[in-house]
């Protein structure tokens, strides 16, 4: 066996299957539909090994998606090895986040409805629920507009993300990041739930945000649990 590129020799079956299961779950939750949205995971690399990622393919419906259709890409998001599929059209967004955020190992992008309401209104979601500060990092910002699939969308999204775990992409959707795919899914679900609460609360009355002193304490908790706090 040629062991020059150990990562390329590996199948990464578990990680591929986890991506398939994650997209199916998002589909069941109504957070993606057809082939919209996407996800990726960073693969462990050491020494001189190339940086590699697994990403969902472009244009494959989630009800038929298989582990074999997940695309292995290099750190320029170009497919490597034998694959019939192309990586998601938003691969540049994934690359931009992995390049900038060493703490991020998995990314989920959805077109979920309530986050998209905020994307259409270009309105950030302030800290209205304690949980969102602890797990997302605070206000969920909205990016400047960028055309789908372009470096501009990737750059603007990264800017809106900052050091947090989610951001809304203007006129498009949202994305969530974390150290595992499972945690990214949890963050994505939380973003959608918070957006739903915000939209409904805004329609029915005055919104009372989380008090500043609590946001400050919760932000510290976020920075500590994500390892982003420099000690
Ligand atoms: Zn999208």
TrEMBL record:
Keywords: Lyase, Metal-binding
Domain of life: Bacteria
GO molecular function, one term: metal ion binding
Pfam families: Aldolase_II (PF00596)
Cellular component terms per the entry's GO annotation: cytosol
GO biological process: pentose catabolic process
Class II aldolase/adducin N-terminal domain residues: 17-199
Name of protein: Class II aldolase/adducin family protein
Protein species of origin: Candidatus Lucifugimonas marina
